[in-house]
Amino acid sequence: MYRYDEFDETLVRERRLQFADQVARRLSGELTEDQFKPLRLMNGLYLQLHAYMLRVAIPYGVLNSVQLRALAGIARRWDKDYGHFTTRQNIQFNWIRLGDVPEILEALAGVEMHAMQTSGNCIRNVTADHFAGAAADEFLDPRPYAELIRQWSTLHPEFSFLPRKFKIAVTGASHDRAAVQLHDIGLHLKPGRDGSPVFAVFIGGGMGRTPFVGPLIRDELPADALLVYLEAALRVYNRHGRRDNLYKSRIKILVSALGADRFSAEVEAEYQAMRTESPPFPPEELARIRHYFAAPPFETLPADDPEFQALRARSAAFDRFCRTNLHPHQQPGYASVTIALKPIGGVPGDCSAAEMEAIATLAALYSFDEIRVTHEQNLVLPHVREADLFALWEALHAAGLATPNAGLISDIIACPGLDYCDLANARSIPIAQAIAERFADMDAALAIGEVKIKISGCINACGHHHAGHIGILGVDKQGEEFYQIQLGGRADEQARIGTITGKGLPGPEIPDAIERVIDRYLALRLDSDERFIDALERLGRTPFEEALHHGAA
Amino acid sequence: MAQPEMRLLDRHGRIVSGDEWVGLADDAPTAGHMAVVVSLKRFLAERDVLLSRDFRLGVRLDPNEGPEALAPDLERISAIFVAFPVFRDGRGFSTARILRSRYRFSGEIRAVGDIARDQLFFLLRAGFDAFELRDRDHEAAFKWAQDSFSVVYQPAADHAAPAFARRAHPPSEGQF
Ligand code: SF4
């Protein structure tokens, strides 16, 4: 993975000192909260319902064990012993004292981490496929490009006062696990006609109040030209994005107002003009960065480790875990392991200090010291030998981290909602817990198969409800929490915004309603290979909507 | 034309005393001034007359006004005043960068409006070289902005060597 050199290290230190000065000015009263607010928002510090929340950047979701240990240490020393992994592949600490922030940032800087650009109207921390550099279906590792984007976007001289926040996601695999079509800019790295890498560039996707699947704005962009093209797109947005209305200021509104063709033509004109000006990054820099992402020293192994297969045959519980929580690896004899942070009754994405430390130890032992954070609020050990899987599973099991539900109906995305967030209309976490409890039987859940439930506590859609096969949105109806249900959203390469169904339901009715939909699906599916989303697309949403709102079939 | 509570600073953070520029309303006469600043609208309407006079000419660009319309005349324009009516409106950064990198404009680019220390670092990098700063303690503010970062990642109009260039050829001394 990428390692800071003296320049990266210096910049983070200087930013930390600058922010420490801003905090000191706030604590001394030299700055009012009003004056301090834009400054803290440039550095991931929010004032929530009960306390300050600090959002720490995990660039493209990649961590090593030393970093994860440091996060555990912060949770222990300055928070209530846990942290919360988010849909942005970041971690949030929810119970922070303002006066502690400079020390926390110092602890982070010690392990090459920071909170820069995790909030504010700037280019946010870039996200990527959590199986990057590991997945069997990958064409090219997107992380060198993600790191290039990280550097280019840090304290950008032109794009630090954008109309609104700006999110970029990258994938290099055929199956999109980074939801690229639902970002301000989504980048899909793929082979061009002559085999050299090119990007499909989607611009103007996003969720929130006005959800859009991002249209394809530029296909076959030579990968070397990426930063020039991004610079052109950001310039068009910076100049022409709306600034008069908070709700219309994202790039998706500009793209839809101009139409994809005109927007694309404007970016293209800017791009062509910029190409004759100085190019922003030389190719040697990409080569230097790529060097850090060389594959770890894999052993040459047979594809199906016989002992691994024998252990699966012997232990039903281990086999059960392997069926849901493994992902095919590009290197024979290896697998990527999902550690689902979704125990039944737990809070999606929460991870205690002790759990982080246990995972750090296992990553060092079994996964070349690497951990990934997924936008589905889980962790991943990307490179595990099949021969080590049983020992790893036993250790995870002992730590209470072997919930075999990755991708199943209880692997729910939920935003913090009204339990923490001062923008919330309704709680998200208790709804997620109630649904997970309803589907607590893991064998029954496996029989149901892949279902993605995503819950947001308000229209801002941090819980990606628009992209859930079943999306749940908390609304406030005269002081009462209600939940609107959407069907048919998806965040993969066939991205789609879910359709709103009927009236909202009160929270206590949600588990029954979801169960009725699932029963209907089980009754209607062709066979167990037809996933919920496939059946929904084959049959249309009417039968499911009926089940949802009109009681049992 | 700096407001009384503003300080006009040059690109080194030094106070410019006796600002020679006079901002003119669209209907004000130009006679008797050494250096006048007009709106883009007035410039476009009276271009030939304005360019033929012997005063120095500046044009003020509001956030929704790009520099493209000035491109053919930039050699005869001495200064561009880029307005930032509110702190968070960053359109002026694009204006300055286009002026410097596309049109190679070498005159003064002045940031006017709601300018505080927190934008200075970015303004300097984007190509501004004069600032009407609202911070009372302008020297400290400027120093703060200038000293905050010794490393930058992007090439920009301030010609600071970005990290990638220093990685390839580490300098033996000096900051840049
Ligand atoms: S979706 Fe709404 S309630 Fe949930 S975290 Fe985002 S802003 Fe808060």
What's this, in brief?
Chain A is of the alpha+beta class. In chain A, 37% of the residues lie in helices and 18% in strands.
What does the model show?
The complex is a heterodimer of chains A (553) and B (176). Chain A is α+β, with helices and mostly antiparallel strands and 553 residues long. Chain A has four domains: 6-109, Sulfite Reductase Hemoprotein, domain 2 (Alpha-Beta Complex), CATH 3.90.480.20; 139-291, Sulfite Reductase Hemoprotein, domain 1; 306-398, Sulfite Reductase Hemoprotein, domain 2 (Alpha-Beta Complex); 413-550, Sulfite Reductase Hemoprotein, domain 1, CATH 3.30.413. In chain A, 37% of the residues lie in helices and 18% in strands. In chain A, the strands form four sheets. A five-stranded antiparallel β-sheet of chain A has the order 1-2-5-4-13. In chain A, strand 4 and strand 5 (91-96) form a beta hairpin. The N and C termini of chain A lie far apart (52 Å). The mean pLDDT of chain A is 95. In chain B, strand 5 (79-84), helix 2 and strand 6 (108-113) form a beta-alpha-beta unit. Chain B has helices at residues 40-52, 91-102, 117-126, 138-147, 163-168, and strands spanning 7-10, 21-23, 35-39, 56-61, 79-84, 108-113, 130-133. Chain B is α/β, with parallel strands linked by helices and 176 residues long. In chain B, helix 3 (117-126) crosses helix 4. Chains A and B meet through helix 1, helix 6 and helix 9 of A and helix 2, helix 3 and helix 5 of B. The complex binds iron/sulfur cluster. Residues 415-417, 421, 423-424, 456-458, 460-463 of chain A line the site of iron/sulfur cluster.
